[in-house]
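Tip: read the tokens left to right.
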């Protein structure tokens, strides 16, 4: 892991972390948590990658009440930075499934964990021995790390370019945060289950969205990065409420005091959530924050 020292900075409009006790609804205008952790896709963002005025206002209200807001996303920094800039977000963000802690206001990478490429190659070989050839992509490390995409890999449309490759050996020439895998016929859940069974001792395996099964450094999760960022802010897990929508948010829910799944969330996440709110299209985050603000 590379760890670049830097100032903590604000995680939203306010850098105060508050002093209210966590764990119960507030009725006096205070807010019961010191940290609000939100996933991006399917959670904070609507399908058009925007954040509604109502949700923006609710987050501004909780930061004005003394809490901090921190984005925790599976996207690596290069695929997150433009969204944070558009939001006017200037604090810490946890990117790359916990691999990166990024200071949005300073456009600076504070910590980064990379994938052991030898272990990843062995993991891929084991998975392919079980299910046949995989469709591959990968995210290179760094503030400007490229997303490499192999033949047949189905890419989600977006504003940022990808770099095509033909030879799988090209994946391993520079440090990576993660490898993406798809299968021609298996569902995401089926592929993730097989990958975890045959290669889970070598790499982490998460399902982060439709068509997004990822191989990560072993032991890495959103909870890893969130705990590092929270430590910089002087905030504990018991002071944290987290919002998410996919199985890769399960470790974050386990770490936080209270986990809120969106109505559009994967059933596996809903099963472990403390509550389920409305969908990302229906201001589900705002509904909960407004209630807690009293």
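Filled-in amino acids:
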């Amino acid at each position: 892991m590379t760890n670049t020292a830097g100032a903590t900075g604000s995680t939203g409009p306010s850098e105060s972390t508050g002093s209210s006790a966590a764990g119960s609804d507030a009725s006096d205008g205070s807010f019961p948590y010191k940290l609000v952790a939100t996933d991006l896709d399917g959670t904070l963002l609507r399908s058009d990658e925007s954040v509604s005025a109502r949700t923006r206002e609710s987050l501004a209200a909780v930061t004005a009440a003394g809490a901090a807001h921190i984005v925790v996303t599976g996207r690596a920094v290069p695929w997150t930075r433009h969204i944070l800039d558009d939001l006017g977000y200037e604090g810490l963000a946890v990117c790359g499934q916990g691999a990166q802690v990024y200071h949005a206001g300073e456009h600076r990478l504070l910590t980064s964990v990379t994938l052991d490429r030898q272990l990843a190659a062995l993991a891929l070989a084991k998975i392919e021995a079980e299910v046949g050839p995989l469709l591959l992509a990968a995210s290179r490390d760094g503030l400007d790390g490229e997303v490499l995409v192999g033949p047949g890999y189905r890419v989600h449309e977006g504003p940022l370019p990808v770099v095509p490759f033909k030879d799988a050996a090209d994946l391993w020439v520079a440090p990576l945060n993660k490898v993406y895998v798809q299968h021609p016929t298996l569902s995401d859940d089926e592929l993730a289950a097989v990958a975890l069974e045959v290669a889970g001792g070598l790499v982490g395996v998460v399902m982060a969205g439709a068509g997004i099964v990822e191989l990560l450094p072993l032991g890495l999760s959103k909870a890893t990065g969130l705990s590092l960022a929270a430590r910089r802010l002087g905030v504990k897990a018991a002071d944290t409420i987290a919002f998410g929508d996919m199985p890769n948010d399960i470790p974050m829910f386990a770490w936080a005091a209270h986990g809120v799944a969106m109505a559009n969330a994967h059933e596996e996440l809903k099963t472990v959530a403390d509550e389920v709110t409305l969908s990302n299209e229906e201001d589900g985050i705002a509904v909960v924050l407004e209630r807690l603000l009293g």
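The CA atoms of residues 73 and 95 lie 5 Å apart. The longest helix spans residues 117-131.
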